[in-house]
Design brief:
Three copies of one chain form a homotrimer. The longest helix of chain A is centred in the last third of the chain and has 17 residues, at 319-335. In chain A, strand 5, helix 2 and strand 6 form a beta-alpha-beta unit. By secondary structure, chain A is of the alpha/beta class. The model of chain A has no long low-confidence stretch (mean pLDDT 95). In chain A, the strands form six sheets. Chain A has a twelve-stranded mixed beta sheet. In chain A, strands 9-12-15-18-21-26-29-32-35-38 form a ten-stranded parallel beta sheet, with no helix packed on it. A nine-stranded parallel beta sheet of chain A has the order 10-13-16-19-24-27-30-33-36, with no helix packed on it. At the A-B interface, helix 3, helix 4 and helix 5 of A face strand 22, strand 23, helix 4 and helix 5 of B.
Chain lengths: 336, 336, 336
Amino acid sequence: VYRLKELAALVGGKVVGDGETRISEAAPFEAASEGAITFAASDRLIAQVESSDASAIIVPSGDYASAKALLVVDQPKVAFAKILARLTQKPFIATGISELASIGRACEIAEAVSIHPFVRLADGVSIGSGVTLHPGVSIGKGCVVGEECTLHSNVVLYPGVRLGARVTIHAGTVLGSDGFGYVFDHNHQLKIPQTGRVEVGNDVEIGANCAIDRATFGATVVEDHVKIDNLVHIAHNCRIGANTVIVGCCGISGSVEIGRNCILAGQVGIADHIRVGDNVKILARAAVFKDVPSNSTISGTPARDHREELRAQAALRRLPELRRRLRSRGDEERDR
Amino acid sequence: VYRLKELAALVGGKVVGDGETRISEAAPFEAASEGAITFAASDRLIAQVESSDASAIIVPSGDYASAKALLVVDQPKVAFAKILARLTQKPFIATGISELASIGRACEIAEAVSIHPFVRLADGVSIGSGVTLHPGVSIGKGCVVGEECTLHSNVVLYPGVRLGARVTIHAGTVLGSDGFGYVFDHNHQLKIPQTGRVEVGNDVEIGANCAIDRATFGATVVEDHVKIDNLVHIAHNCRIGANTVIVGCCGISGSVEIGRNCILAGQVGIADHIRVGDNVKILARAAVFKDVPSNSTISGTPARDHREELRAQAALRRLPELRRRLRSRGDEERDR
Amino acid sequence: VYRLKELAALVGGKVVGDGETRISEAAPFEAASEGAITFAASDRLIAQVESSDASAIIVPSGDYASAKALLVVDQPKVAFAKILARLTQKPFIATGISELASIGRACEIAEAVSIHPFVRLADGVSIGSGVTLHPGVSIGKGCVVGEECTLHSNVVLYPGVRLGARVTIHAGTVLGSDGFGYVFDHNHQLKIPQTGRVEVGNDVEIGANCAIDRATFGATVVEDHVKIDNLVHIAHNCRIGANTVIVGCCGISGSVEIGRNCILAGQVGIADHIRVGDNVKILARAAVFKDVPSNSTISGTPARDHREELRAQAALRRLPELRRRLRSRGDEERDR
């Protein structure tokens, strides 16, 4: 339980009303009851502040005269996320290395770790302090797992994968599988050995059942603060720029470079060797077949500027009518 | 081995011919040989009944004068599925808890279970009677697994997941991974803690390598009798209505609500917060960006009424010709 | 370290310059330094041969007068792949069966195998010589794994799966999960028992987190030399012809037959019961709803001949302009 003024200090906000209000949980607006803090970001919700059952409400900057305890901040949703994290955080408890784990030779494992049953570390693995390896995690030779990483159940790191600090990987995800490289030799596809690795920066989160391939040479790179959803495929030699967000079911082909602060919505596909600039928004289901300049918003298959795509979609919707009109005019002309 | 009359009783059908015919297996029409029962649902196959090698044939209601033993029912394919199930069923044999499994504290495990090697149950897990947990299954704190569930190898349940009775989850599937929720705070994506859970009803089947995220608050819900194919992604806070069928490779964004008795064909995508009514058919590869009323059939990207989409596709196919016509008419006009 | 003349013998090429040149690694053109061999396949790179730091360069047939040691071959990329494989190959070392593996009854396991911790073999499994089973692999009853197969961590084979020789399966992939077969019985989907199996030929490679379902009856078949990328879904009763390549995120519905030497680019979808001929190219993101004759190249949704699709896309891009023209001409006509 926190007092509202403590939470205000945490997020750098201003209390309107009783700073001693006791807060035990954070909840969405409709579900917030006594003891809870919630947030009202839209005008619609701000208008309902008085009738909320919440004990305190986070609101955007403005003038308020309210019977409710309010917490005024610049970015209510950000403040809410921080307060929710504080209210629900569990301290890391190092349970050590399970007797049912299997540890290879020459591993360097920090003291404060939680390595669960049926985890396998191959030889020469390095595990930082504060790391949790859930059951069934399998880590290949020479991998490096930075401080405070969490690898959920059945995550697989192939040999040589390197994770920075505070990386979270959800269950079933595979890093470092062979890139899909073949060359046609007479009748068969001949495998091109995949000798590179995967490097992941700090503060990255990767969803469940993803696959990120190792590079043919060098490294497939996921930079700091990248966030990746479930069932995403990232092929060999890609580079994903810092802060970029990749939503579920995207497929990114080999040697694609994506800049910083991009957003790839769900089910996006990108062809091989494409360069995507910084601050690019690729809307859901777009298929990208050519380079994308920074600061653009694209959509469609093949993807193009989103406004162009909208115009084409609108024209397409009116196409049956256009054909009718053209046909009837043709008849008129013949009649003349 | 069953006698045909016994199988007729099982499915509520009527025997034409020898009810004592002995049936040892069920097979598709072309492959059925002596001892087998098969079914003929189409006129084409019904015409071939006499020349089949099967010992008995399930046919739809009608008048038959046949030298073959026939089993007449309302729904031949349903009857065939039931008979096939009866002929191939294996009784559940409880092998108990493997010595190579790892069981947490305060778990409640029914007597008649099969818990295979390398299964890990965290603390406070409840496992019902008749449950099979295949090798490598990992079940988080406080999960509830109902009676007669089967979790295939390497299935992962995060903490707090609840499964009803007779749920089958295929290998590698993950339930309860964090929802993909962030809010942009200055330069970085700040994680919104995902505090909810996943709730699955009775008689649900989920394919291999799927991912179903926990809710931010409350629950992501999969209702009774839902059937989900392989590699399907269901994001946080979705609700999938009873009896709905989701075919492979679909991606369903956050907070989507899908009604009862819907069919999502392969590779469908649904944008966040969309509401889909009951009895909706979403055809393969459709991308759904707006709410869908009950009883509709939609297709395309963006998805719309299927007949409209067909008209637009037809017009699109004729578009090059339309341009040619328009251009030549422009020439005529200039010539006048 | 090899001498260039030894590598020339390996790939059947001709040395121009010093055959005694010592080669310790293979690298891409830009990264190749002393001791490395690289390849120049394009005119652009061939023009830069003299300025490369590589100790030797593989070039296509032609006349060369060079201070560099050259290796002249018909297919430089093929020769490079073979030399890279030779330079990076690691001999198979049989580590035997880990004490932390769990082996069922009546298994036939060759002497020279590496079975890692937390591998589970059910009863009656057959494992050939030279096989590596990485941690967490789970193999069902009666499976057959041919010689020199490699199954990466957490691969799952359901009962009855058969793999030929030299098959590589990447981490998290599932073979033999139930086909997605139901029949609607009054209010619910009734499961059709899936009694078939999965058969994989020789020299097949399958990526990470794929799912290949068993057949309802008979077998889902992946023929020799097929190469499959990550996150691919192959439904029950499919047959994938020899040498065919399936790129990441494809979804192939039930009972699809694909011929030999086909290429399915990324995110392709194929509807059920479709027949695809030999030597077919299906371009990225295509959705295939009808049979495809041999030797065709198709694209689009719905997929059609690629040249037709290009024409339609071009017409679609000009559609807004077409509408404007039509509208202004209508005005002219009214004005006349």
